[in-house]
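Long-time lurker, finally posting.

We've been working with Serine hydrolase (Ramlibacter montanisoli) and I want a structural starting point before designing mutants. I don't trust myself to interpret raw outputs, so I'm hoping someone here can both generate the structure tokens and explain anything notable. Sequence follows.
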Amino acid sequence: MPDFSQAIAHAQAHEVPWPRDPASAPERWGVHHVDPPPYNRLRGPVHPRGGVSGVIRIGGEEVASWGTPDRADLTYSVAKTYLALLAGIAQARGLLDPNERIAQRLPGIGFDDAHNREITWAHMLEQTSEWQGTCFGMPDQVEHNRRVSHDPKPPQGVKGEARVLQRPGTYWEYNDVRINQLSLALLHLFRRPLPQVFQEAVLQPLGGGQDFRWAGYDDAWVEIDGQRMQSVPGGTHWGGGVSISARDQARIAQLLLDGGLHAGKQLLPREWVARMQQPCAIAPFYGWLTWLNASGGMFKDASRESWFMVGAGGHYVWMDPAHDAVVVVRWLDPAHSAGFVREVARALG
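Top reply, 14 upvotes:
Generated this for you. Predicted structure of Serine hydrolase:
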């Protein structure tokens, strides 16, 4: 059995330098501070976090854990990948075709003008939609020129400074407002709160879901079929988002590693899971709301088959088909993530 003690020690020695209680030093907690005012504030609930924790599975069996792996903590943009899973469930139910224009199926929710009506579900999933508008008070411009740690392209301008939009499908940009618009579209597609759908279709069949929460912004409510429902964000950039345990994250990653199959039941279409790992034509480091390592650009010590869910605050969910392994680490200082991956890779051999 591989010895992961060095990897665990590395993670525990390099906790992200955010306070554990967001109320104790709010100016040092989260990522909303870098947004231009008045958008540099929380708009949904947050809560105190635990310390560094994680889980490693090999061959479907847990072989290591550390910290508090059963504690439900905010997971930031790992939640984006959960939206991709929900889209796959919708596809399996005949609710969407990834190449269909969203406006065709869902008129009246923000995809109807000349620019946005070209946007397909695939564009939204690969972050090439260039959607333009305001989603629950947040304009897409807030995220113009945004760069995140694993985005290899050089800076294009000042974050929040308007740039000329390109035709949907021709420009890649990491943009939380557009992801929130995707979540709103999925809510209208299912016509049920997305946390309920995710709990029933994914977490419960996997034997997870204890203390799972997926909260929206305080003002992100819509009425569908006479019912008031909250739309949830694909992260915790402005608060809200998914709170989940490391063990549940590992369960979800195992489902993806196994091609959507669990206990003899296909929870997600195998073809959908495979498509999530295909590189975007204009951003080959990215799949469908997942990060890819085909060139070794993310982590040079990880296998080239590896793919990742990543969230701010040091959340990494690593699926490694080459070693039949799942690795979850939480609240790891991103500046030391490569060292953690190196130690895990060394142990895996």
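Before you design anything, note these points.
The chain has nine helices and 15 strands.
Residues 59 and 324 are 5 Å apart (CA to CA).
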